[in-house]
Write a structure and sequence with these properties.
The complex is a heterodimer of chains A (253) and B (241).
Chain A: H1 6-29, H2 39-48, H3 50-84, H4 86-101, H5 104-114, H6 118-143, H7 147-155, H8 160-198, H9 207-216, H10 220-250
Chain B: E1 2-10, E2 16-25, E3 30-34, H1 41-49, E4 56-61, E5 71-74, H2 86-95, H3 102-112, H4 128-140, E6 146-150, H5 158-175, E7 178-183, H6 186-192, E8 195-200, E9 205-211, H7 221-237
Parallel strand pairs in B: 3-7, 3-8, 5-6, 6-7
Antiparallel strand pairs in B: 1-2, 1-4, 8-9
The chains are: A mainly alpha (253), B alpha/beta (241).
């Protein structure tokens, strides 16, 4: 057990040192908190409405996870379709690229017009953002299956279904997981962008809306508190997906 | 067992890989396809396996094309599935057909290649020689009539190669398994083969054929004589490099 290794503690120490430096700088320069609040002011703003901000976090995270789930299901299904037939590959690929290169902010108003329900509209927007990495990585992974193993499956009379389930998908797993990590981060970005664009307020509104709202009211410490929560959520998503990757890949090597 | 008749193979790029191959393989043969890189010997193996289609001519089977699992194939790399145990890798040809005794038979097969204690090991934890043993076990687990091997020992060190050559001879002999073995090593051909087919490149043709009982003894006079004969044949043929 290397409890005291530099890799474990250095990030915490540098984080705490940065906070201390920040607080000291704010104190010494007398910057008003509505421009740059110190960490203490931000913490106070958080405690002042912790339940409201956490509810907003839950709202944002539910959009994020719904979008990530949709992106994974769609991405893997379409990638399998593309692996199964050259015709499907040629038919699907251009659409995937169009979806990727078109800025979601530009499509969002259309999505909102078409889908009345704000939650569904936000999930669709975030899915569009999160879809591509998991899709394109799975496509690469499915295509990178060693030719000899494919030959071996054919020699032994494997069905196309067996080939996908027992060979191509397991072979694509490392690629899929790398894509999943990127998509996880993008799903959160997509959820925030969707909240900004839809401007969905009310009880079920997410963190991005809280940031906008706090901005209008010049509650800058509250803005920072919401921002810190978003960063923490992004870090947590990344950590969970990294852990998942390590667990699953440890079994395959 | 099978006859290759007037077989040509032209790639999509227009290159003629094989030209006018005539070859008959008899039950119980240990036939070695010997030749320099790029002479089409691997392609010939793939054509016999049915993994590629010939451009002209074809392969005629005396008892019909073998059913799935009737041909064992060993590649140059062990090409195991890294996420599956040695046992599951070995059982693959049987489990793909849903054989209920797949695991028991795979266990027995692994024991025959000396890996009884490594059934639950993943390929990443095995040495190169052990991985090749698993690959051979996988090729033989379905009791194939024909075993095709594409330079299986080329990437192994000399010590491991000698041991695996001996183990392979014992396995194919005890099972009466017909074997076609591709190599570019004179010594390997001289040691293993009951028949040696020498191929020349661009396009791949059969240049010469040698028969005779292999000595299966690396210190034996007969083996040395055979190496000598192959070396002379190679010099006299003036094969393009």
């Amino acid at each position: 057990m290397k409890v005291f290794s530099a890799g474990t503690w250095a990030p915490f120490i540098s984080f705490l040192a940065s906070l201390a430096l920040w607080q000291a700088a704010v104190r010494l320069t007398h910057v008003p908190p509505y421009l740059v609040p110190g960490p203490i002011a931000i913490a106070q703003a958080f405690w002042a409405d912790a339940s409201g901000l956490l509810r907003a976090l839950v709202a944002t995270l539910s959009v994020t996870f719904a979008a990530l789930l949709a992106a994974v299901i769609l991405g893997v299904a379409l990638a399998c379709g593309m692996a199964a037939s050259r015709w499907a590959k040629a038919a699907i690929e251009p659409w995937a690229v169009i979806l990727q290169v078109t800025p979601v902010v530009a499509i969002a108003p259309l999505i909102i017009v078409w889908i009345g329900d704000p939650f569904t509209a936000m999930v669709v927007c975030a899915t569009v953002v999160a879809f591509f990495p998991v899709f394109s990585n799975t496509v690469s992974g499915l295509a990178a299956t060693p030719r000899e193993l494919l030959d071996l499956f054919r020699l032994n009379g494997a069905s196309p279904m067996q080939e996908i389930l027992l060979l191509r998908l397991p072979a694509a797993l490392p690629y899929f997981l790398a894509g999943l990590r990127v998509s996880g981060g993008l799903a959160l970005v997509g959820a925030v962008v969707a909240e900004f664009v839809t401007g969905a307020g009310g009880v079920a509104s997410g963190l991005a809306f809280r940031i906008l709202e706090a901005g209008y009211r010049l509650q800058v410490p509250r803005m920072f508190a919401a921002l810190a929560l978003l960063s923490a959520a992004g870090l947590a998503i990344n950590a969970i997906l990294s852990l998942l990757t390590r667990r699953l890949l440890a079994r395959s090597t | 067992m099978l006859q290759v008749r007037a077989l040509d193979k032209r790639y999509d790029t227009g290159t003629l890989a094989l030209s006018g191959i005539d070859l008959s393989v008899n039950q119980g043969d240990f036939l070695v396809l010997l030749g320099p890189s790029g002479c089409g010997k691997s392609t010939l193996l793939r054509l016999i396996a049915g993994l590629e289609a010939p451009s002209a001519g074809g392969v005629i089977w005396s008892a019909g094309r073998p059913a799935p699992g009737g041909i064992g194939y060993v590649f140059q790399e062990p090409t195991l599935m890294p996420w599956a145990t040695a046992l599951r890798n070995t059982a693959l040809p049987l489990s793909l057909r849903g054989a209920p005794d797949a695991e028991t038979r795979a266990e027995r097969m692994l024991a025959q290649v000396g890996l009884a204690d490594f059934a639950q090991a993943r390929p990443g934890t095995l040495s190169g020689g052990m991985r090749m043993r698993v690959s051979i076990a996988r090729a033989l687990v379905s009791n194939p009539k024909l075993l095709l091997m594409d330079e299986p020992f080329a990437a192994l060190d000399e010590f491991t190669r000698h041991r695996l050559q001996d183990e392979l001879l014992a396995l194919t002999k005890s099972r009466g398994c017909t074997t076609i073995f591709v190599t570019h090593s004179l010594y390997e051909a001289a040691y293993l083969a009951s028949r040696i087919v020498l191929m020349s490149p661009r396009p791949g043709r059969i240049a010469a054929e040698f028969t005779g009982q292999p000595g299966h003894d690396r210190l034996d006079e007969a083996y040395m004589t055979r190496v000598g004969a192959l070396t002379r044949a190679l010099r006299d043929l003036h094969l393009p490099g």
